[in-house]
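Continuing from the previous page...

OK, I double-checked the sequence for Lipoyl synthase against my notes and this is the correct one:
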Amino acid sequence: MDTLLTLPVIQPEAAAPAKPRKPDWLRVKLPVGPAYANVRKLVDEHKLHTICESGNCPNMGECWGAGTATFMILGNVCTRSCSFCAVATGRPNEYDLDEPRRVAEAIMLMKVKHAVITSVNRDELKDRGASIWYETVVQTKQLSPTTTIETLIPDVKANWAALDTMIAGGQEVVSHNMETVGSLYRLVRPQAKYDRSLEQIRRTKEAGHRTKSGIMLGLGEQKDEVYKAMDDLVENGLDILTLGQYLQPTKRHIEVAEFIHPDLFAHYREEGLRRGLKYVESGPLVRSSYHAERHVNVPI
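Thanks. Re-ran it with the corrected sequence; updated structure tokens here:
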């Protein structure tokens, strides 16, 4: 009697889900022109860090071409390891007490009408770098008294004394980015807390400041989660919200889950205003400092 040999059935491997293709509305122009070249020269000469470069901002050509830039103080190495951010992570060794003067002089030389200042997280510093923050704003105001300033400050990890110092220099706008909706915090901002960032915004508002925050879309959030984030922000005193498309900076970072259509961005803008926000900047290429000069006119 012949023995039948039964071979195992090999199932074909499931095809990996196709990654979403970058749509036409996300195309940007390369930075060119004499105004851009002048800003590039000044940034290099004064050994300044800009989030425009470190964050691979798609609007760098447009903003620098208009003679504006967002300066990043306290070095270019961050103590956090957020899954979306292109800024280097590690143990910072840069702490330059002369940095406020250099930033202030550069802003004066560039004749900037509105400056945005941000920083990496410096969790290893007892004051989170608050003294550098304060001096940068104060010295900029001294050299350029007509220049308006927005400070985009990091999470102070509930060091509220540090927050008080950071926001006391005389800036017109104080921003702190939520970055994403609550359900995605552990994935996107593993060393941050959704409620703590809301409290930071609330305390900033209670101190009498114009408040601003930003959220990236396309990370897998649902519409109702975006609405809830808007409601939470309004409840905690937010004035200005920016909404933009998340773009994966390198293959090591979290992938884009979805490219949000411009029509949905327009819908979110109207929804945010309806829910009580005073100003909403919403679009695929919107970033925290995009059109920031317009935000100083938002009533407190």
